[in-house]
Task: structure prediction
Amino acid sequence: MKTFFYSLTVFLLFSCKKEKSFADKIILHDSHHEKLNYQQFNEGIDEAGTCIIYVGKDTSTIELKYYMGMMDPPPPPLGFVPDSSYRKREQMLTGFFYHHFNRIKSSEKPVTFDSLSGQNIEMSYKINDTIPKYAYNLETGTIKKYKAFPVFIKNISGKKLILQEFKSLTLAVLNDQQKWQMLSNDNVMVCGDSRIQYQYWEFNPNEIMVLSVNFLKGKDKGKFKIFFYDHSTEAFLMNYDKSIIEKQRNLFELK
Result:
């Protein structure tokens, strides 16, 4: 009887042990250590910056800085001479953002993007970790600092994946109809880009993306998933204000 109890205990311990992830050993370094806030609804309308922190294979030390965009900025006009305010702004941005992603390519013909699934990418997240999400407010010229958590995506396909340009990950909540509904922290109208089918980047084998998703302010508890195009994470619980569902401009349900 004692032997059976001991065997059962060991089995339960191993069954309840959290499955290891490729992201377990990744450490993010924050050199600013500043106070973080929840992003308010519609606060991000006039903000620039992506959720992308890092793309590559060397995850030994990753600085918590973000890419301003995936498309590299155009060169300054001929004869441009930066004044003191421009230099001050660029110095401020350099502490929080990378200006050049250097991986977007253009095609003369429409690109066929790879479909994503658990067969070619692995997604992980650390909902118990709080990291800063930086954004640049175009109206005020200031850096906004939000509470976020890290998300990790690894290419496990053994080949290059052809992907679209993106700015942020898609957050979805399980609504009252038991459908996964896309949830935005704003209700702005998003316009499409006619050139998106002609621009792409290559996610190389065994490369890892380190990204972030903002926490939502509120006391309601909801079930969420993070979508990266066709694929999503496992469901997890997170606080939010349920009234945000009613503020959405459109209803988009995801599979």
Remarks:
- The chain has two helices and 19 strands.
- The two ends are 48 Å apart (CA to CA).
- The longest helix spans residues 2-16.
